[in-house]
Specification:
heterodimer; A: about 70 residues; about 0% strand; globular
């Protein structure tokens, strides 16, 4: 599943994939693959990304399932 | 000795492990195939394929010791009697067929006596089945005990 939230947060902070990768100590390809949903990062890396973007784990990595979404919307 | 610093991130490390894992198993099965062809089909002396056999045994030993230490069994199955039976049947069946082919090729007498060949193959199958089953049963039991020990090590129950 694509991680749009991460992409949006990165855009809000005006940070490129390259810059974010440098800040958290990974390659640009890794950030690209996390955003594309092709790689599941470790909790340690998730926290590092959140800190670099000034967000919480909930903001970037929490996915609500359909039932929860429906309950909230009704 | 100073430990070498990794220059790869966690994704690259995972991908490298996957590549190395795949290559290890390719080499493992090719080595086994090479040993079988040389020893059974070509009737080569042990001095010819002994070195390969030693390397093969070292890799087998490494996998067994590593799996035991970490309490791991297999990617696709759990250590149960049903799985021991399935793996024993597959292993003994495959090896018995190979052995039957080599017996047929190397012994002129057996070419004319297929019943004797069949009986001999069946006997080899039974022996191998028992051997593999016992080996799997023993290793599976040891690994289950090890898993229990590792689970207890990280249990949230405080020691009294």
């Amino acid at each position: 599943m694509k991680n749009i939230k991460l992409k949006v947060a990165r855009a809000e902070n005006d940070i490129s994939q390259e810059e974010l990768a440098k800040r958290v100590g990974v390659t640009r390809q890794t950030i690209g693959m996390i955003e594309a949903g092709k790689f599941n990062p470790s909790l340690q890396l998730c926290i590092a990304i959140c800190k670099a973007l000034g967000k919480t784990l909930n903001d970037l990595f929490w996915e609500e399932n359909d039932n929860e979404k429906n309950e909230k919307s009704s | 000795m100073k430990k070498m610093k990794k220059v790869v991130d966690e994704r690259q490390e995972l991908e490298l492990y996957k590549i190395e894992h795949l290559c290890f198993w390719i080499v493992f099965w090719l080595l086994l195939g090479s040993i079988i062809v040389q020893s059974m089909f070509l009737n080569a002396p042990f001095s010819q394929w002994g070195f390969e056999w030693t390397i093969f045994m070292i890799s087998c030993g490494g996998v067994i010791v590593g799996c035991y230490k970490k309490g791991q069994w297999d990617f696709y199955s759990k250590p149960t009697t049903k799985n021991y039976l399935i793996y024993s049947l597959i292993g003994a069946g495959a090896f018995a067929i190979i052995y039957a082919i080599t017996l047929y090729m190397n012994h002129a007498y057996l070419k004319g006596h297929l019943l004797a060949l069949g009986s001999l193959t069946l006997l080899i199958f039974a022996l191998l089945f028992a051997l593999i089953f016992v080996a799997l049963f023993v290793s599976g039991t040891l690994i289950k005990k090890r898993q229990k020990k590792l689970e207890d090590q990280f249990s949230d129950h405080d020691p009294q």
